[in-house]
Amino acid sequence: MNEEHIKHLMKRYNEGDSSQKDEKYLIENRNKLNIKEKTIFDFIQQNKIVTPANFNETQWESFTTKQKQKKRNRYSYISIAASILIVVSVFLFKPFDQEMDIAEKQALLNEALLMLGPVEEETTQTILYEDELVIIYTSN
Amino acid sequence: MNKTDFKNRVFDLSEHIYPMVFRMLGNHNGAEDAIQEIMMKLWLKRKKIEHHPNLKGLVILTARNHCIDVLRKKMKIIPIENHEFRDAKTHEDSIFNWEQLNGIIHKILSKAPEQQRDVFLMRDIDGYDFKEIAFTLNITVEHSRVLLSRARKLIAKELETTYHYERGTY
């Protein structure tokens, strides 16, 4: 009965029709198979990779740490980029570079003087009286 | 998809993809790093993949493609017999010792058509179901069964030939 069952499962296995449960059963009972079939299941069993215990949890911890690190890095990059942008803007638009040269200043001064009209001639002053506290002038 | 959803629906498949990633990259540390990178890729795409009809298949496919990229960059294929978990002890009740056995089956697999080899490894070594295999390899479930059957028969046939050769009964 058991032998027949294994034979039947091997047939299904070779046809690609076996379920994972059937295959597990064949691996566990490979000592009952003929030597060629057993060799194949020895190979499969030997090469099966067992996932370490608590793998998801340890990986998740590591993942969240990396995520936080990446977030911090992103903020740092944004800060650096903003700083660079400010520096570049300063160089491109030169907001403080509005100082006039001498010719421009002279022209502006002349314009201002014209607005004031003709300057009156300087008056001559004569001292009439002077003491330690008071000086009295006369002008023409 | 928020962080909790992502953990429950995507990240917790890490255990499921670990055997395949380990097999393809050949060592535990490489597999761990790769899984972190795979999960980071999926996290960045979480809005797009949220309503994917086969999220499990998508995670396996992403993992497989990532491993292929890593191997391409390294320009090397990890021979199956070089995995660090390999135990080279001799089994008294086996036809060959482990080194011989792994060498022989690896040789058979390397000669097998690529899809047959992939289906065999994904099913018999990594333990995926046909739906996952079919989605990952972009074939139908029926086709994956046919390929698996051919691969299993090929290995059995080649092993028999080798066995007879070893025993001088060919």
Structure write-up:
The complex is a heterodimer of chains A (140) and B (170). Chain A is mainly alpha-helical and 140 residues long. Chain A contains 5 helices and 2 strands. Helix content of chain A is 64%, strand content 8%. In chain A, strands 1-2 form a two-stranded antiparallel sheet. The N and C termini of chain A lie far apart (145 Å). Chain B has 170 residues and is an all-alpha fold. Helix content of chain B is 71%, strand content 0%. Chain B contains 9 helices and no strands. Chain B is elongated and about 60 Å long. The N and C termini of chain B lie far apart (61 Å). About 7% of the residues of chain B have low confidence. The interface between A and B is large, with 33 and 48 residues.
Query: What spatial form of chain A do the alpha-carbon principal axes imply?
Result: rod-shaped
The portion of residues forming beta strands of chain B comes to under 5%
Helix content of chain A: 55-70%
**Structural class by secondary-structure content of chain B:** mainly alpha
Order of helices and strands of chain B: HHHHHHHHH
Query: What is the end-to-end distance of chain A?
Result: 145 Å
Q: For the largest sheet of chain A, list the strands in their spatial order.
A: 1-2
Which stretches of chain A are poorly predicted, pLDDT < 50 over at least 5 residues? none
User: Poorly predicted ranges of chain B (pLDDT <50, ≥5 residues)?
Assistant: 81-92
Distance between the termini of chain B: 61 Å
Summarize the structure.
The complex is a heterodimer of chains A (140) and B (170). With 140 residues, chain A is mainly alpha-helical.
